[in-house]
Amino acid sequence: MFALEIHNAIWLFLVIFMLHDFEEIISVENWSHKTAHLVENTSNHFQLLIWNFWKIDSHSFAKRDVLIFLGCSIIVFLKVQTLQSGWSDILFLTFLSFVLLHNLVHIIQTLILRTYTPRLYTAIGLVTPYTIYLLYRLL
C-alpha cells in the first residue's frame, strides 16, 4: 500500500488547503450575485451575518487568502523543520483542529442559508478527510 512519509504528508496538506482556497476565489463573486435574492428581505440575523462575510469580489478574497496561505506555509514549514519538537506538535495540532472547525463552519453556513456556500465541496471532499488523516498520523 502507498504510504506517505510524514513530512511529505504535512507538505501535501498545504496543497490541499490551497485547492480549498482556490474553490473560494473562483466561486465567491459569482455565488454572491446568484444568491443575493436569498437574503434581500430576510430578518434572520445569522443569514445576514453570513451574507455580509461572503458578499465580496474575488480579487478582495484573493488578497485575504494570500495572508492565509502565508500563515499556513509558516506553520507547515515550522512543523516539517522540527518534526520531533513538542511545541511544533502543539502548534500544528492546534492548526489542524482550527481547520476542522473552519470546515464545520462551512457546513453550518450552508445549512443556515440553505444553499451552497463557497469552499463547501473541498471542505467536505478534500480538506476534512485529509486533516483527519494527518491527525491520525500525528497522534
How would you summarize the topology of this molecule?
Layout: H1 6-35, H2 45-54, H3 58-81, H4 86-113, H5 120-138
Helix pairs in contact: 1-3, 1-5, 3-4, 4-5
Describe the structure.
With 139 residues, the chain is mainly alpha-helical.
State the helix count: 5
Q: Helix and strand succession?
A: HHHHH
Radius of gyration from CA coordinates: 17 Å
Which spans of ≥5 residues are poorly predicted at pLDDT below 50?
Answer: none
Strand share of the residues? Answer: under 5%
Question: What's the β-strand tally?
Answer: 0
End-to-end Cα distance = 21 Å
Biggest β-sheet, characterized?
none
Mean pLDDT: 88
Structural category = mainly alpha
Oligomer: single chain
Gross morphology? elongated
In which range does the helix fraction lie? over 70%
Main attributes of the structure:
elongated; 139 residues; mainly alpha
Task: Give a brief outline of the structure.
The protein is mostly helical and 139 residues long. The chain has helices at 6-35, 45-54, 58-81, 86-113, 120-138. It starts with 5 loop residues before the first helix and ends with a helix.
